[in-house]
Design a protein that fits this description.
Distance between the termini: 25 Å
Number of strands: 12
Strand content: 15-25%
Number of helices: 10
Helix content: 10-25%
Shape: globular
């Protein structure tokens, strides 16, 4: 106990305990509520981004962007929906410099068939366009491609009035949700790309409750500076839905050479992805209506999970969402090279972590080492999700990705079952082959105790499981 007392006293003296308190709401929470401003605007909040080679059709790349974190299924009568006054974008870069070359843009529109009722639906729903759906949302989509010299751009494909999958309400309203609604909301565009927008079960998993409690890890409760009984992890995303925009595209349509690469250690085999939500610069509320005008300002950005949450300090978090990936090192290099969570792990758990600046592990990961590139072929470091499409999809994927020898796993892209919390805990603690001196127990065995979602993804596009019905929303956990 004396040792723990000294640790806590040292934390307070160094100001680290205060830092933990300040950063805890943002720590290790994927991108749910990752910055002060966007935490007040959930419909525009990027929560997770996934990119992975399709296991059924190896010529296809799947990209899934999630929004509106911690969504309650029983959120009626005004069920959660995409914002009509926001612009949702998925950006793709194949040259390695982080500058967007292909953009998929989504705009949403909501209509109410009968404004004289409070009902979301006036009877059972048998399709995404069922006449009984009173509050319905559609979207337009554009695929915008820059010219090779990047001096101009063109709209390669456009579609409008595409139906959004409505909420999964319950057995009376949505008695056969997945077959009648979920699967029918998948749309194939004129160029063969497939798209989906609507609610799904959130695939992300993490012990948010413990991590927010001063960076606690229940399986390691006894080793914490403020010890508690050891316990199993609890998934804070259990019972929660999320809103999804998913696209499935031919790999040859997004790579640098417009082919399906076969050489792993080649920058041309790597595709970078990040998602952005924008709102117009001026927003006016008048007569119960919200209208926007002016420049479309980015309000939320996401590439790799947890970068803004655990590496960017509070003073820069909102600015980070406004910036472009190619400027990350210039703007935030000091935070990326000197990760505060590593110092907290050292103080709270007594871990021996790598010395700063973290040029031997964090920088290579940000430059594509996790995507299979050798140092000679590293790309500029930035917060962008890079997937090497020359690597075949794993037949037996491992949740720990490259840390378990699964070359197709995170941070080579990101699959729905990749345990990014455990992976990044170990990366931040130096428990990886990049830093042999600290690649030892317990650094290389850190875990929040949550290894998977309580509801598994499905084996077909858009891959995240059907949304939990409002009628079936789990009861809240009892207070301790």
């Amino acid at each position: 106990m004396k040792n723990r007392t000294r640790v806590v006293a040292g934390l307070a003296a160094a100001g680290l305990l205060g830092a933990v308190l300040l950063t805890a709401p943002s720590a290790e929470a994927s991108s749910h509520r990752e910055a002060p401003l966007i935490s007040q605007d959930p419909s525009a909040d990027n929560t997770d981004l996934y990119a992975f080679r399709d296991t059924t059709d190896p010529t296809k790349l799947n990209i899934i962007a999630n929004f509106i974190g911690l969504e309650d299924p029983a959120a009626g009568p005004n069920f959660t929906r995409f914002a009509d006054d926001a612009l949702y974008q998925i950006h793709i870069n194949s040259s390695g410099d982080g500058i967007r070359e292909i953009t998929y843009e989504f705009r949403f529109s909501t209509t109410v068939a009968n404004p004289n009722t409070f009902l979301y639906n006036t009877g059972p729903l048998g399709s995404p366009t069922d006449p009984n759906l009173n509050v319905r949302q559609t979207y337009s989509i554009r695929k915008i491609v820059k010219s090779k010299d990047r001096k101009s751009e063109s709209v390669e494909i456009a579609a409008s009035n595409v139906p959004v999958a409505p909420a999964n309400i319950g057995p009376r309203s949505t008695p056969n949700y997945e077959e009648a609604i979920g699967k029918k909301a998948v749309t194939t565009l004129a160029n063969g790309d497939r798209v989906f927008a609507g609610p799904r079960k959130d695939a992300f998993f993490a012990d948010l409750g413990s991590i927010f409690d001063l960076l606690g890890l229940r399986p390691l409760n006894g080793a914490h500076a403020l010890p508690l009984p050891v316990a199993a992890g609890i998934n804070g995303l259990a019972g929660k839905n999320v809103h999804v925009i998913a696209i499935q595209v031919p790999i040859a349509s997004v790579t640098k050479n417009r082919n399906i690469p076969t050489i792993v250690d080649d920058p041309a085999s790597v595709v970078g992805v990040y998602s952005v939500v924008r709102r117009q610069q001026t927003r006016v509320l008048e007569n119960a209506q919200s209208t926007g005008s002016g420049y479309w300002v980015p309000v939320s950005r996401l590439g790799l999970p947890l970068v803004n949450e655990v590496l960017i300090p509070l003073k820069w978090k909102d600015r980070f969402n406004l910036s472009e990936p190619q400027y990350d090192v210039e703007n935030y290099g000091s935070a990326l090279l000197n990760p505060e969570p590593a110092a907290l792990m050292k103080a709270l758990y007594g871990l021996n972590v790598p010395a700063n600046p973290r040029t031997s592990d964090l920088v290579p990961i940000l430059r594509g080492a996790g995507a299979g590139l050798s140092p000679a072929n590293y790309l500029p470091p930035m917060d962008i999700l890079r997937v090497n499409v020359a690597v075949p999809a794993a037949s037996s994927p491992n949740r720990l990705g490259i840390l378990a020898g699964d070359a197709q796993g995170f941070p080579n892209g990101r699959r729905l079952n990749d345990d990014v919390v455990d992976i990044l805990l170990r990366v931040l603690a130096g428990g990886t082959p990049f830093t042999p001196a600290t690649n030892v127990f317990p650094n290389n065995a850190l875990t929040d105790g949550v290894d998977t979602s309580e509801i598994q993804p499905v084996g077909y596009f858009p891959f995240e499981a059907p949304p939990i019905a409002g009628y079936s929303q789990p009861a809240a956990l009892p207070l301790p």
